[in-house]
Amino acid sequence: MHDNIFKINDKEFLLPGNRSCQGCGLSLAYRFILKALRENTIVAIPPSCLCVLHGLYPTASVIIPAINCTFAGNAASASGIVAALKALDKPDITVLALSGDGGTYDIGIQSLSGAAERNTDFIFACYDNEAYMNTGTQRSGATPMGAITTTTPLLTKREKKKDFIKIMEAHDLPYLATVSPSYPMDLYEKFVKAKRIKGTRYMHIDTPCPPGWGYAAKDTIKIGKLAIETGISILFEIEKGKLRLTGRSETIAKKGKKLPVVHYVERQTRFKKMSMEQLSQLQSSVDDRWNEYVGRAEL
Ligand SMILES: Cc1ncc(C[n+]2csc(CCOP(=O)(O)OP(=O)(O)O)c2C)c(N)n1
Ligand code: SF4
Ligand SMILES: [Mg+2]
Question: What local confidence, expressed as pLDDT, does residue 232 receive?
Fold first, then answer.
């Protein structure tokens, strides 16, 4: 395993000047994902901010082969690429399907579930920015309760965020991991590891988004860190059924110093209409989830 930032592959696959917003958490995460997966990778992309980031033909901001797929069918298209590579006897090429939360939790769930059930030999990564950002911040199954979106403008979203990671865990995958662009070493190491494993590997990327979440572009790293410090997101990996907390989440679990969720909520204007009742519901669901994962981990 790598132990410092200087061990990261110094080749850039994501070029400067791409079309993502300033401070985009996806752009940061993608840069390190591609460094970890390296050449010999093909990416399947659905309609999303990722599609915009890649650019319009004939120009592209990413120097690896990429295929634009349909919104619902990214995992199915990626399965087709995997089958074609098998037919061509090219076992050394990694297929990455990278979808937003809309393309994973909602419209993409059936093709992903089917591919995972077949244990398709690919990495499916969901960059979860908690709404349909590319089309103007509509609510998705990943949007947290209490957040304002353009489809929940008056009363905030009333339903809880879907526990999609649990749904993927129920597929009994060879590897599942959560990552954050605020912790690039942890992200990089997990993708390096995922590349070496066969079968369906599911990676969940907690992805701060300045315009959609309502914070200054310079604060992306800070917001991503606060998600981990408060336990809103937890860094872990599950390999052959064994759960291991990693990085900062492991440290917090050992030292027992998780911050209250209000530290995360108060910095984002999407939560400005959150009620006290919603805040305390969020705190208790975060506490329950945290206790469950810490209880399962071998510390
Ligand atoms: C079948 C279909 N419905 C709707 C759209 C319009 N559309 C394009 S991108 C997008 C939002 C994608 O949201 P998400 O997957 O969360 O990715 P993000 O934009 O947040 O990066 C929508 C609704 C589409 N392209 N195809
Ligand atoms: S809307 Fe959010 S996820 Fe999309 S490009 Fe901008 S910062 Fe990135
Ligand atoms: Mg999204």
Answer: 98
- Please tell me the pTM assigned to this model: 0.97
Q: 283: buried, middle or exposed (CB in 10 Å: 19+, 13-18, 0-12)? A: middle
Whether 2 is in a domain gets the answer: no
Domain of 23, in residue numbers: 9-296
Which of 64, 94, 96 is CA-nearest to residue 77?
96
CATH of the domain at 30: 3.40.50.970
Neighbours of ion ligand 3 (CB under 5 A): 100-101, 129, 133
How confident is the model at residue 3, as a pLDDT?
A: 58
Contact 132, 138 (CB under 8 A): yes
Give pLDDT tens digits for 152-166.
977 899 999 999 999
Ligand 2 atom 7: the closest Cα is on which residue?
24
Say how many Å lie between the CA of residue 284 and the centre of ligand 1. Answer: 31
Question: Residue 38 is which amino acid?
Answer: R
